[in-house]
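anyone seen this seq b4? input:
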Amino acid sequence: MSMIRDLRAAVRPSRPSLRKDTGAYDATRDPSTPSAVVDCAVYRDGRRVQTGQQLSPHEAMRQVRRDGGFVWIGLHEPSEAEFSGIAGEFGLHPLAVEDAVQAHQRPKLERYDDSLFTVFKTIHYVEHDELTANSEIVETGEVMCFTGRDFFITVRHGGQGSLRALRHRLQDDPELLAKGPSAVLHSIADHVVDGYVAVADAVQDDIDEVETEVFTPGRGGKVSRGVDSARIYQLKREVLEFKRAVAPLLRPMQLLSERPMRLVDPDIQKYFRDVADHLARVQEQVLGFDELLNSILQANLAQASVAQNEDMRKITSWAAIIAVPTMVCGVYGMNFDYMPETHWKLGYPVIMAITGVICLGIHRTLKRNGWL
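predicted toks r here
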């Protein structure tokens, strides 16, 4: 992510707290009015209850309380007004609601009364033909999950990380979906971590490409002058952003896999161990990326320094060679009445020959010592 985007995120004005807005969700709202609700459905015995029309969160929760099952609501970048009524309907904690609306949160797991609040950072690899100093390699988004006894709410931020395909896959597995909201939480965690694995493989290819360029010998087997250091630094910044998404999530996944929780089905808890294991491997890989890029950057700077030293040695060598005829010509160019052997006919060719031999000797000596 570029420095400009970091600065924009830092100066982005905070939205007012949701605790100041207590408006109710309007179940009779005109369907043509834009809404942050992407999908809202009731699931009973692992199957989606077909109603023939899009349910409102209020109507879906009423069905669940009457007939059982759980409701899964998906939202995309809701405003305070759109989410405050839903939060009141499901009794979500104001602090968690505020985090879900404002976004830019660190991956975490928090328990509030009868619900779990989980934050995931989604990572998307940005395809590019050539790595440049301004290339954006990874793009981040966020998925916030509210897990309750009879409800599951996802709040998604960013253009990537759609959960539509994941919802369809879960609906094709009624046995798993029958485990309740914790099964959905596991599936989202597994989906996010699988995305990390794919991005890590793609970033590895970029690092291998830069590493090859840095350590490939130059023309004639000479030391390479390296690559643009800004490219390596940009790649390192993108890896750092990747690291910020992966590292904080490991502890929440370990808690979900090791500590018994009322809202997590014991059978589902076993699956979180596999997610935590995959996440730990990705974290080790990302840490390795950071260390490897440090070494590549140092090697690139060292090669640039060696190349500059070679240039200076060549310049110094030629200056030493040119100094000899310059000195001789300077001496014989003086306006003296009496100069050594000025009236000797062979004086000029002899002096030029001696000068040439001296220059040739200096050249051979410097060439033998590797200066030229």
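Residues 1-34 have pLDDT under 50 and may be disordered. Strands lie at 37-44, 47-48, 70-76, 108-112, 115-125, 138-147, 151-157. kinda curious what u guys think
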